[in-house]
Design brief:
By secondary structure, the chain is of the alpha+beta class. The protein contains three helices and 17 strands.
């Protein structure tokens, strides 16, 4: 779903001056755990007019677990105070940008990670307390926003998750926990040769809904004593290298793994089917052998019965026996007559 989203692009003249100050003219990779702020500018004393807060140093906190940005009430300019960190290295270019965040769950509070060439182009990842199951991915270019809301399989306020974007001349790819969630090549961005890009994090409050959409909700300070806060750690930048982007490489690796897993699944299925065919063939062979053995045993029994039956005489044999017996009797009678 596309709609308008609020971003950190339109800031005061003081912020514009701060972004252009003290350039380091470097495009080297960096990593910041965010437990210290030595390499950051801590915004103080300004904030876009439409926001319900202004940036103050008091709302940006260091800790061994990273940076915590809170919402307070010590602003002299707005109803609330909020916080922002801007990395000192400027003139950043194409590459991979990453951070870990835990968003606020307070309606109206926004948690942001963004690359900005002020007044020109901004690439955003924004999380809001209105709905902790979506993330807003946005490109602001030529004073126009192009946000997309992405459904997420977790609550952004419950635990650490890794959010990143890969910026190239041809496209911007956003990822969450290493999985690509959005790829856009339809929105132009000004090249790093023609604009001064810097990297920043902030958390701020919305008190007036955006035109056409209340995407973050209207902020009111909690009455239960809870301090609204967002957490950040592990900020990284890796300049563009030759070959596919990190997200593209990860996508290709995932596709290759899926292919290998599918091939292994098919192989196992084929082996299982062959084993089943072999089992059935063995059963059929055993049944045939059993039937043949049964038939042999039946035939053997029939032969044994035939051999053990009493011998019967044919009619010719009976006549011969009778004739023989008659001749013998006649001989005995003649002998008896001679003797007497």
């Amino acid at each position: 779903m596309k709609s308008l989203s609020l971003s950190a692009l339109a800031c005061s003249t003081a912020f514009l001056a701060l972004l252009s100050a003290s350039p380091t003219d470097s495009k080297s990779a960096f990593y910041e755990s965010l437990d210290k702020h030595n390499n950051f500018i801590i915004a103080n004393g300004w904030g876009p007019d439409r926001w319900g807060c202004s940036f103050t140093r008091t709302q940006v906190h260091e800790s061994s677990a990273g940076t915590k940005i809170t919402i307070g009430k010590d602003s002299a300019l707005k109803p609330y105070s909020c916080g922002e960190l801007i990395y000192r290295q400027d003139k950043l270019g194409y590459g991979h940008y990453t951070i870990d965040m835990i968003a606020s769950n307070i309606v109206g509070q926004v948690t942001s990670f963004f690359l900005i060439a002020n007044g020109d182009t901004e690439i955003d990842i924004e999380l809001t307390g209105l709905n902790n199951k979506i993330g807003w991915m946005n490109i602001w270019h030529d004073q126009k926003q192009n946000p997309v809301s992405i459904d997420l399989p977790f609550d952004t306020s419950k635990d650490w998750h890794t959010y990143s974007f890969e910026w190239r001349k041809e496209f911007v790819v956003w990822s969450v926990d290493g999985k690509v969630v959005l790829n856009r090549s339809d929105i132009a961005t000004t090249s790093p040769e023609n604009a001064n890009y810097k990297l920043a994090i902030n958390s701020w409050t919305q008190v007036q809904p955006e035109i056409n959409i209340d995407w973050a909700g209207r902020f009111t300070y909690p009455e239960n004593g809870e301090i609204p806060q967002a957490k950040f750690r592990n900020m990284r930048y890796q300049p563009k290298l030759d070959g596919p982007s990190q997200d593209e490489k990860h996508r290709r690796d995932e596709e290759e793994k899926e292919k290998q897993d599918e091939a292994e699944r098919v192989k196992k299925q084929q082996e299982a089917e062959q084993q089943e065919r072999d089992r059935k063939a063995a059963e059929e062979q055993a049944q045939r052998e059993k039937e043949a053995e049964t038939q042999r045993q039946a035939q053997s029994k029939q032969g044994a019965h035939k051999n053990s039956a009493p011998e019967t005489l044919s009619p010719k044999s009976s006549v011969a026996i009778v004739a023989t017996s008659g001749s013998a009797l006649l001989g005995v009678a003649l002998a008896f007559t001679v003797l007497f």
